[in-house]
Amino acid sequence: MDQGDRDICWAICFAGLTQALHNMTRPVNQHVEISIEELINQIKPGASESFGLANLKIAIKHIAKNGILKQPAREKKSQEANAVGTRYHETFQLHQDVDADFLQARLDRYPVALILQMDAEFLALGQDGIYHMRKKAPITKDTSFHCMLLIGYGVTREGKTFFIGQNSHGEEWGCKGYAIVFINNECDIFCRQD
Question: Where is the Peptidase C1A papain C-terminal domain (predicted)?
Fold first, then answer.
């Protein structure tokens, strides 16, 4: 998926996580696709806000209480739209300052969403798709956050752990939208609540 210029990486991750958690225990003919647009329409930042941890917490509460739609509702009125379609409820949790071992333990059971501070290297990731995540910097008004799904991990010949990330910047980013991410410092994630 390509989010384009829209600040919707968080919604793509929540929808991807919910979809994966539902589908991973069911046969293919019972798989569902989750609506990203419906979630975006429910969680709207203020006019001067963009993606931030506060919006993640709002989305976590919304998905636990109201669920997320299987498919977009076709009704025009929002009250009708909220009642149409199958909703999937999931309880997610934000984990801050976790290490690679914590990530691996979660990825052994389900995908997780990585929260990172974007930098020029990340945005311009080449076709080799290898990204070394930087240490978290103090948050300022200019800090730009991004979410991407982590769907697996591995170990290099040299014994270094890496994570497989699925991004929302389209197939032109990284290796057809995927990356090998090395995380050597603490990071923030959200995933299914244990």
Answer: 2-189
Residue 1 lies in a domain: no
Helix axis angle for 53-65 and 9-23, nearest 10°, is 40
pLDDT in tens, 78-116: 444 444 578 888 899 999 999 999 999 999 999 999 998
The encoded tokens of residue 176 equal 């057809």
Q: Which amino acid is it at 179?
A: A
Asked if the structure places residue 145 within a domain, the reply is yes
Burial class (CB in 10 A: 0-12, 13-18, 19+), 154: exposed
**How many structural domains are present in the chain?**
1
Does any domain span residue 173?
yes
pTM beyond 0.85, yes or no: no
Q: Residue 64, exposed/middle/buried by CB under 10 A (0-12, 13-18, 19+)?
A: middle
CATH code where residue 50 lies: 3.90.70.10
Is residue 17 within 8 Å of 39, Cβ to Cβ? no
Q: Which domain holds residue 30?
A: 9-192
